[in-house]
């Protein structure tokens, strides 16, 4: 495969050029039958073409589907709706496909209940089930459901195919991923950049780095490759021990041979260092670090840990010590094994787009990074209840978290209604989003959750947590200021607005969101008394909201009282402009709340004394209104 350039090095264009015919050869190669040989033979054809493979799997009358339909009918014949059956939500049924050890009967039952519940009339439900199949390593089910879509004339789109390809890749079935690509024209679906990325990843997961590069080359020819595709290609080489090819790709990064948005950045260098470390090439690691400095790419903890590990393995302890010293000097975690373990964890979750190494997040969100690791070690993937419980345990055993646990959680669950379109301001690590997603499942699996988070590190961790819990399809995380998201108009109609970001601006953000509130909207405001939302209390009062105050305790702080305020806006025609003035004493109190909140991020503050000053004002207001 290698073609020598005049300089003696392998040029990537040559390498990719050399891979193009390989790709053709791969497409045309004899592939293993999709079904066990005896079943395939019963079709009367031992070796169907690729397209034929796909058509057969997709045909509603395939033996595979018939067999499943039989099982499904058996299951459907069990006591159902009218005769006291258990009701499962769409989310809960789709999540079953995520359980690696789920029996065929349980999965068949889930598919049948999804069908009979009318959920399998839409592309999105199938795609959600397929995505769960990917996580649960149920590639056969992914293919079967994809085929069923054709049989039931449910439109397949490029996302459906991309997810099915990913499911085959995760199930070590890269050949079947190719079958799916081959079947896309028949389904009138155009591959996009994610298709090629999923194909590259499928090949990469099976150690087929040359084929991964072939797909990268094809995506480049079609103009749909980007930096992410390039990184996947590099990782495919690095993971398969092809360190020379990885270095070659590093050379080509940022030249005309790579997609336009690729540069020799930290990611490319990091993968190259990893490849050299794995191959025991410590001198190359040191060269790479040197080059990074020359090119002003600051090595992060993972890059340095790779180089240190390579030097240790190569018994160059002096060089390893020098690197460790730099890590300590830059206040990085100098536990090389731990840093590398984190890097591996993020590689295990490649479906989180543009993975940021957890180590890079640590300076911004140390506790939250620890929490994410704690979750991955202790909770069950795809089991949202277990993730919620493990977060609560972390708050109990390790470090307090600003989440809506205990009484607040119960109140939240009791207030939500089936089909609520929920918008939350203040996602943090996704705890309350998961509580709400889970509650919507229990209420029938309709409705939606969109959550805004201003802190990018928190939002990144939240996405990872939600993905781990298997609710990423049910919760949209929007990174940025809540009021900016409101201004985009993209949050849609809101039936349930959860205010849990910054009490001193609740009134402003609520006012901005008012035009989006539905007629029956509920506003659920946490932390009204602790740390305090004085201007919000005044706002809902003068604007004519119907107000309910719930007095309860802050999560895991029995010494601190708090209020959750549940209020309903007046009808749209009675909603008013922002009040021009607010009582000065409330403005002063609000400024004090801000000041102590900021201070609490740096040092210990006496919240109980502060509350003793705040409470009389709030209770006087409450009593005056007879609330
Ligand atoms: C109390 S925590 C939210 C807890 C979360 N609702 C839960 O119970 O799991 C508040 C979060 O709001 C975020 N935040 C603060 N100001 C914000 C704003 N203007 N827009 C969006 N998020 C904001 C903070 O970064 C923090 O993560």
UniProtKB/TrEMBL annotation:
<dbReference type="InterPro" id="IPR002885">
    <property type="entry name" value="PPR_rpt"/>
</dbReference>
<dbReference type="GO" id="GO:0016206">
    <property type="term" value="F:catechol O-methyltransferase activity"/>
</dbReference>
<keyword id="KW-0808">Transferase</keyword>
<dbReference type="InterPro" id="IPR002935">
    <property type="entry name" value="SAM_O-MeTrfase"/>
</dbReference>
<keyword id="KW-0949">S-adenosyl-L-methionine</keyword>
<dbReference type="InterPro" id="IPR001763">
    <property type="entry name" value="Rhodanese-like_dom"/>
</dbReference>
<comment type="similarity">
    <text>Belongs to the class I-like SAM-binding methyltransferase superfamily. Cation-dependent O-methyltransferase family.</text>
</comment>
<feature type="domain" description="Rhodanese">
    <location>
        <begin position="391"/>
        <end position="477"/>
    </location>
</feature>
<feature type="repeat" description="PPR">
    <location>
        <begin position="192"/>
        <end position="226"/>
    </location>
</feature>
<feature type="repeat" description="PPR">
    <location>
        <begin position="157"/>
        <end position="191"/>
    </location>
</feature>
<feature type="repeat" description="PPR">
    <location>
        <begin position="265"/>
        <end position="299"/>
    </location>
</feature>
<keyword id="KW-0489">Methyltransferase</keyword>
<dbReference type="InterPro" id="IPR029063">
    <property type="entry name" value="SAM-dependent_MTases_sf"/>
</dbReference>
<dbReference type="GO" id="GO:0032259">
    <property type="term" value="P:methylation"/>
</dbReference>
<dbReference type="GO" id="GO:0006584">
    <property type="term" value="P:catecholamine metabolic process"/>
</dbReference>
<protein>
    <recommendedName>
        <fullName>catechol O-methyltransferase</fullName>
        <ecNumber>2.1.1.6</ecNumber>
    </recommendedName>
</protein>
<dbReference type="InterPro" id="IPR011990">
    <property type="entry name" value="TPR-like_helical_dom_sf"/>
</dbReference>
<dbReference type="Pfam" id="PF13578">
    <property type="entry name" value="Methyltransf_24"/>
</dbReference>
<dbReference type="Pfam" id="PF01535">
    <property type="entry name" value="PPR"/>
</dbReference>
<keyword id="KW-0128">Catecholamine metabolism</keyword>
């Amino acid at each position: 495969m290698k073609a020598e350039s005049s300089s003696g090095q392998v040029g990537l264009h040559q390498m990719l050029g050399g891979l193009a015919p390989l790709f053709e050869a791969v497409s045309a190669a004899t592939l293993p039958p999709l079904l066990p040989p005896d079943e395939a033979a019963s079709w009367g054809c031992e070796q169907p073409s690729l397209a034929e493979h796909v058509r057969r799997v997709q045909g509603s009358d395939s033996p595979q589907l018939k067999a499943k339909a039989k099982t499904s009918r058996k299951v459907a014949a069990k006591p159902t709706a009218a005769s006291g059956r258990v009701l499962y939500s769409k989310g809960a049924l789709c999540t079953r496909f995520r359980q690696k050890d789920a029996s065929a009967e349980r999965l068949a039952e889930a598919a049948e209940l999804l069908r009979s519940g009318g959920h399998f009339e839409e592309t999105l439900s199938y795609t959600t089930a397929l995505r769960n199949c990917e996580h649960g390593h149920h590639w056969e089910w992914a293919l079967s459901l994809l085929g069923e879509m054709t049989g039931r004339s449910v439109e397949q789109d490029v996302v459906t195919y991309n997810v099915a390809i990913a499911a085959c890749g995760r199930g070590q079935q890269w050949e079947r991923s190719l079958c799916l690509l081959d079947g896309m024209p028949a389904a009138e679906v155009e591959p996009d950049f994610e298709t090629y990325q999923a194909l590259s990843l499928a090949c990469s997961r099976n150690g087929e780095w040359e084929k991964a590069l072939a797909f990268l080359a094809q995506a480049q020819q079609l103009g749909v490759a980007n930096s992410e595709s390039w990184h996947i290609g590099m990782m495919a080489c690095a993971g398969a021990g092809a360190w020379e090819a990885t270095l070659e790709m590093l050379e080509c990064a940022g030249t005309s041979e790579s997609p336009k948005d690729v540069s020799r950045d930290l990611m490319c260098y990091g993968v190259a260092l990893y490849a050299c470390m794995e191959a025991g090439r410590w001198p190359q690691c040191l060269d790479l670090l040197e080059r990074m400095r020359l090119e002003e790419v600051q090595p992060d903890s993972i890059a340095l840990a790779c180089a240190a590990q390579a030097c240790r393995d190569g018994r160059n302890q002096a060089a390893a010590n020098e690197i460790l010293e730099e890590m300590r000097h830059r206040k990085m975690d100098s536990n090389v094994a731990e840093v590398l373990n984190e890097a591996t964890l993020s590689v295990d979750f490649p479906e989180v787009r543009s993975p940021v190494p957890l180590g890079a997040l640590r300076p911004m969100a140390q506790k939250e990074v620890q929490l994410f690791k704690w979750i991955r070690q202790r909770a069950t993937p795809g089991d949202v209840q277990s993730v919620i419980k493990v977060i609560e345990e972390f708050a109990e055993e390790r470090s307090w978290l600003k989440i809506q646990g205990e009484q607040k959680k119960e109140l939240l669950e009791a207030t939500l209604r089936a089909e609520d379109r929920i918008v939350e301001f203040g996602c943090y690590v996704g705890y309350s989003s998961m509580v709400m997603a889970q509650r919507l499942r229990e209420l029938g699996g309709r409705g939606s959750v969109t959550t805004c988070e201003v802190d990018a590190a928190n939002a990144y961790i939240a996405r990872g947590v939600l993905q781990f819990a298997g609710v990423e399809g049910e919760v949209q995380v929007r990174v940025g200021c809540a009021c900016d998201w409101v201004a985009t108009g993209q949050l849609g109609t809101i039936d349930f607005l959860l205010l849990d970001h910054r009490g001193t601006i609740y009134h402003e953000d609520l006012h901005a969101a008012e035009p989006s509130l539905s007629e029956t909207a509920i506003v659920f405001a946490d932390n009204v008394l602790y740390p305090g939302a004085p201007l919000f209390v005044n706002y809902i009062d003068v604007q004519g909201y119907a107000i309910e105050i719930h007095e309860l305790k802050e999560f895991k702080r029995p010494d601190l009282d708090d209020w959750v305020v549940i209020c309903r806006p007046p009808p749209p025609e009675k909603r008013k402009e922002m009040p021009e003035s607010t009582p000065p004493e409330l403005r002063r109190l609000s400024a004090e709340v801000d000041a102590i909140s900021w201070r609490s991020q740096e040092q210990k503050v006496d919240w109980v004394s502060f509350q003793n000053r705040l409470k009389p004002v709030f209770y006087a207001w409450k009593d005056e209104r007879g609330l």
